[in-house]
Amino acid sequence: MQPKIALKNVSKRFGRKVVLDGVNLEVPAGKSLVVIGGSGSGKSVMLKCILGLIRPEQGQILIDGQDSLKFNSAEREKSLRKFGMLFQGSALFDSLTVWENVAFGLIQGRRMDRKEAKRIALEKLAQVGLGPEVGELSPAELSGGMQKRVALARAIAAEPEIIFFDEPTTGLDPIMADVINDLILSCVRKLGATALSITHDMASARKIADYVAMIYKGKIIWHGPVEQIDNSGNEYVDQFIHGRAEGPIKMEVLKP
Amino acid sequence: MINPLAIIGRVFLNFCAAIGRVAIFTFHSVRHVFAPPFYFRLTGKQMMTIGYFSLPVVGLTALFTGMVLALQIYLGSSRFNAENAVAWIVVLGITRELGPVLGGLMVAGRVASAMAAEIGTMRVTEQIDALTTLSTNPFKYLVVPRMIAGVITLPILILVADIIGVMGGYLVSIHKLGFNAGTYLKNTVDFLETLDVVSGLAKAAVFGFIIALMGCYHGFNSKGGAQGVGRATTDAVVSSSILILVANYFVTEIFFAGR
After folding, report:
1. Interior CA angle at A89 toward A84 and A91, to 5°?
2. Rounded alpha-carbon distances, angstroms, from residue A224 to A1, A203, A214, B231
3. Check: complex ipTM more than 0.90
């Protein structure tokens, strides 16, 4: 079966720093893949390459079998309609109200009537547990957890085929993090979407993943079903999932 | 050992690269002006921000400039008994030069910095990336409305500033210097040509373009958090101010050559 997203030998460098070093990865349609890895390992750059926000120097990025690096701007715009994304810092537009944020892609991207878009926005806000009164607030008036929920509602508003989650639980308390994980699961299942997430949070990864891949120094060093992560046989994965300071992964920290 | 030639070469190459980046940004921005979708509502909002909300500061600048100009010209012209020149030098000075240039610089300080700060914050908080993922072209949504608003609004703003500036000169001339009101107004109108006003307004349109371009460019390319946004804001004001002064000479020369 053709994967929904496939990366073939994707490389990207910034100056002399190699961030992605021949990444190969496939995300099956309708499944949830979580990419784990330390800070600076290339996770966010990989997501941005798939979205076309950053152009890799080498390799192929296939969306439904089509090489997205060869898209012209109209094709790229059309392809982006398949995607929804929840950003790490929520990235809500602070000049707009909450409902306008959720409806943004419908009104600006799809030219939907504002009234109809507002109805859908309030429906999506309800889906993430927020009442219609929240819709009239500005993002600055919300807590971090509520902002994440609004960002999730915005990501699913246009019912995308593919949803990206960039560190969805970072900065949240464990209970709110679990609430967000539950919402991600229910939203993705309801839409039947393909999900690609990046996270440091192993509890989150275990909960939302069908498959897990680990990226280290710009390469995918392990890839398998989430059930096998505890028996991966990979010492890098073992060190990461148990959060041990000692092991093959050396942090670049100057010792006193 | 530091090689001075290498330093000069590096600075020159960085300067050329910066010009190239601005040129590409300008090309993309102008190209998107003519392609749908058009964001009329956002353009209207930007026109209010650039024009209406800048009116107090530009109006005050023009008023006091006109008043000071009248005093200075009176002092200078009285040395060779040419006090009657005050009216027409004030009106020419304000409409052709001081209105657009000082108004443009004041708007650069107020608007270019605000644009750079707003767009820069959107850049560092990934809001611009979010726009792209929501099928919205950031150039069309953020840059084009500001550019159109800048080019349309600045001439209107400067026209109002011209009137206020001339009025400042009139008030000082009548109430402090003892000119006859009717004669002063007659001198003002008789010596003013359409081209004087048009050249000033053409300058204002160019300055509006420069202000919006620099505000958006530096905001769009800001990085590194709060410090990066602060740097973008400063760069936007400095570069737009310098470009206004440079463009002022070239636009003046175009009108000068046309006479």
Report:
1. 55
2. 17, 17, 9, 45
3. no
Chain A residues with CB under 8 Å of B140 CB are none
- According to DSSP, the β-strands at A194-199 and A162-166 are parallel
| B134·A109 Cβ contact <8 A | yes
CA separation for the pair A33, A98 (Å, rounded): 29
Across the beta sheet with A211-216, the strand order is: A83-86, A162-166, A194-199, A32-36, A211-216, A219-225
Place of tokens 């699913």: A156
Res A255: pLDDT: 55
B79 pLDDT band, cuts 50/70/90, is: confident
CB contact under 8 A, A51 and B134: no
User: How many CA atoms, within 13 angstroms, populate the side-chain half-sphere of residue A190?
Assistant: 13
Tell me: the pLDDT tens digits for A107-143?
988 889 999 999 999 999 998 889 999 999 999 999 9
Closest CA to B95 of B153, B144, B165, B168: B165
pLDDT greater than 90 at residue B199: yes
Alpha-carbon distance of B203 to A202, in angstroms, equals 60
Mutate to test the interface with B, among A101, A104, A106 (most CBs of B within 10 A): A104
> Are the CB atoms for A185 and A207 separated by under 8 Å?
yes
Residues in chain B within 8 Å Cβ distance of A53: 129, 132
Q: Which of B37, B126, B137 sits opposite A91 (nearest CB)?
A: B126
Residues 6+ apart with CB under 8 A from B205: B151, B152, B154, B155
How does pLDDT run across B10-25, given as a tens digit for each residue?
999 999 999 999 999 9
> Whole-prediction pTM value?
0.87
The 10s digit of each residue's pLDDT in B117-175 is 999 999 999 999 999 999 899 999 999 999 999 999 999 999 999 999 999 999 999 99
Show residues of chain A in contact with B132, CB under 8 Å: 51-53, 80
What end-to-end distance do the CA atoms of chain A give, in Å?
Answer: 53
Any bridge partners for residue A5, and if so which?
A27, A63
Q: What is the pLDDT of residues A206-239, one digit of tens each?
A: 999 999 999 998 999 999 999 999 988 889 899 9
The one-character DSSP state at A172 is S
For residue A103, list chain B residues with Cβ-Cβ distance below 8 A: none
CB contact under 8 A, A77 and B133: no
